[in-house]
Design goal:
The chain has 12 helices and no strands. The protein is mainly α. The protein is globular. This is Sugar ABC transporter permease.
């Protein structure tokens, strides 16, 4: 009589670590596909295409056919209107670097104090303009600064600071500084957040040791805070500079580049030649050439930050 041998059921083999790792990498790439497609379609391809269109006299209809070589670049560089927009853009950057950066740092040091009551509310209030729609802010600013019925002029007239209304946005001499102040106010919150993040990287132990050694607030600032946050400060400077160059939405919403192009910046200059309905025919090729010049200028400034950043990092490591 034979007895049947019962075999224990075999457990399914677990996937190997190599196979699991490959699957994880594959899923990672699959999740990146939508991002790569969108980035290529809406960022990378327009950049590449603009370089090609810059060498054509093209109105945006049909394929570009009239090749003009470097004529668009020569016309832009020889145009007084281009350099007016260029220096106006640079003026926005000066305001951001020499007013917004140091002011935001001083306020960040105050809000970084744990003894300050309501500091979270203050941070939120200062950051609110950053997340507000620029078009809405532009309309509100235009109403507030209006020469007739504007709140700002009414207050100035009431306290006797001026004897007649000031046309903040209609006077070519003061329209640009007015917009620079508004741009600083709108971007102040994000610069403040940058500085707060930098200040919170400073170890508290250093301050405590400095206090034990008898160091005052100024000595702590000069010998601890500034050296520690300096590498991050260079990055903040770069980010603030790049943001200050992209002032299209504010200028377009408030003045449209006027009056008499006194507030015209490179983004509005490009927009006018590419999309403005008031011109006889769009000049996409010329607008692309100006965009390329603008991009190269921004790239050069960015690359110049590299050695400065490396030098600061080396000094801080020492």
């Amino acid at each position: 009589m034979t007895t049947a041998v019962m075999k224990a059921p075999t457990k399914p083999r677990a996937p190997s670590k190599t196979r699991a790792r490959r699957q994880a990498v594959l899923w990672g790439w699959l999740f990146l596909v939508p991002l790569v497609v969108l980035f290529t379609a809406f960022s990378l391809w327009p950049i590449i295409a603009s370089w090609g269109y810059a060498f054509f006299d093209w109105d945006g209809v049909g394929p570009p056919e009239v090749f003009v070589g470097l004529d668009n670049f020569r016309e832009a560089l020889n145009s007084s209107a281009f350099w007016n927009a260029f220096w106006n853009s640079f003026f926005f950057s000066l305001g951001a670097l020499f007013v917004e950066l140091p002011a935001a740092l001083c306020l960040a040091m105050l809000l970084n104090n744990t003894l300050l009551r309501g500091r979270t509310f203050y941070r939120l209030a200062i950051f609110l303009p950053v997340v507000s729609t620029t078009a809405v802010i532009g309309l509100v600013i235009a109403v507030l600064l209006a020469p007739v019925g504007g709140v700002v002029n009414e207050v100035l007239l009431t306290i006797g600071f001026v004897d007649r209304p000031i046309n903040f946005l209609g006077n070519p001499d003061i329209a640009l500084p007015t917009l620079v102040v508004v741009d600083i106010w709108k971007g102040f919150g994000i610069t403040l957040i940058y500085w707060l993040a930098a200040l919170q990287t400073v170890p508290k132990d250093l301050y405590e040791a400095a206090k034990l050694d008898g160091a005052g607030a100024r000595q702590q600032l000069a010998n601890i805070t500034v050296p520690v946050i300096m590498p991050i400060a260079v990055v903040i400077l770069l980010l603030t500079f790049q943001r200050s160059l992209n002032t299209f939405d504010l200028v377009q919403a408030v003045t449209g580049g006027g009056p008499v192009f006194s507030t015209d910046v490179l983004p509005t200059y490009i927009y006018r030649y590419a999309f403005d309905a008031n011109i006889a025919a769009p000049r996409y090729g010329f607008a692309c050439a100006v965009g390329v010049i603008f991009g190269v200028f921004t790239l050069i400034i960015t690359l110049l930050q590299g050695p400065l950043l490396a030098g600061r990092l080396k000094r801080s490591a020492q």
